[in-house]
Specification:
Blueprint (H helix, E strand, L loop, with lengths): L20 H10 L9 H14 L4 H7 L7 H6 L5 H24 L23 H9 L1 H8 L3
Amino acid sequence: MTGRFPYAFPNVRSRFRPMSDGALISASRRMDYTSEEITAHGFRSVASTLLNEQGWNVDAIERQLAHGEKNSVRAAYNHARYLPERCTMMQAWSDYLDQLRAAAAESPAAGHAGSAKPENPNSRTTLLDRAEKSLFVSSVNRVAPAARPS
């Protein structure tokens, strides 16, 4: 996917380093989100929460988030990367996000509902657009069963 570079989302200064939190924060601010509405780490938190609620393997989720094993004995012996399951999980996550985007596009409440600020014409609709937040949370039980591992 990334050719000879290790990251799908590389740092602007070096393709051999990951994108910084600052880049995500800057992108969020350009889409008119404040620090009270969204944070870079919040995306990871949302993904972790929903993937756990959807029934994915906890170890696969933790490896996908690049978390190490907290139990020192288990960490010494378990070096599994869970790559096949992580690939399946990330494809299911992508499909889930696509479903949310499609549902939000059909919703008459698209945009920044309840906001006094006008839409930013340069912004793209994002996963956590204010109108999608409730859809994102409430649709977990409807969408997730098809995405769950067998």
